[in-house]
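Deliverable D4.2, example record:
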Amino acid sequence: MTITPQLAVRAQELNRRCFVADAHYDLLNLLARRRIDEGRTNVVNEDYLPRWRAGGVNLIVSSIFLDTMHVPEMALRRALDQIAAMHEELDQCPDLALCRNVGEIRAAHADGRIALLLSFEGVEPLGNDLNLLRVFYELGVRGIGLVWNRRNFAADGLKVHRRGTSGGLTEFGAALLDEAERLGMYVDVSHLNDEGFADVCRLTGRPFAASHSNSRALTNVPRNLTDEQIRTIAGRGGVIGLNCAQAFIRLREGGPATAAELAVHAAHIKQVAGAEHICLGFDFCSEFRGSAGIMGMDAIDYYDHAWELTAGLLAQGFSEAEAEGVLGLNLLNFLEKTIG
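Output generated by the structure prediction step:
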């Protein structure tokens, strides 16, 4: 698909005037690396804010994601260090606001600030202590992705199966779902295997998200969703975040995946479940290049190139109102239903 100059201008204008929200970015991990491991300060202002502003970003959901070297012995400490690093950055960057509900997100937007919401990508920091979920809730965490690719006390990730079990949620994982619902947190099923996905569907009736997963019918990798899973998420009132990792987008062998191909995934999800259940979940990984477990590079360079996806959406027949939903309003509506 060729993006004409006219379509590019239209897409860039749409991104500038819309509420733009990303359901998944490993920002806290990156801040801890810069501040704690490298001894830097003022990281957001120097490394990120200009490109966030250029991309019109209004909300970032940052995961608490732990590198394997910190699991399990240092999981809790490193998670708290990530939150501490974030607070140091908040002190240095008044353009950024930690938010705990949609009212605070809207207030930050009205003030011209970029809202930050926190979620788990793997509950390793909790160990097997259910009481710690309340502690992290009080620290601002509102999303609970039960696993990354590895096994923890709650469930198996995509790359492992517990011998002698179905590979889904454990009793502790089921208890976490109950406690998350009681506290008012949303559940994120990206990185769960199919058995874990089925368990979430069985154990909760609330809306849930797949914050950074594409269509398995188009790109057959376990990290993507089957059409039945897409329909299930939509039927619960949930959202699916478009992931820009090339390994989860590629429609053909050879050559890099593109934003246009990601738009094809969006069009497929729209056909299966409706445009109102699609959001952004870019999961930018270029900064982790060379790290173990990272599959390929991003099909979109960064937020200031997100308009390329918008152009792809328009070229795929999305109306401007539907594209506006994908860019941010659909995620905001989901959060209003789940965290308030």
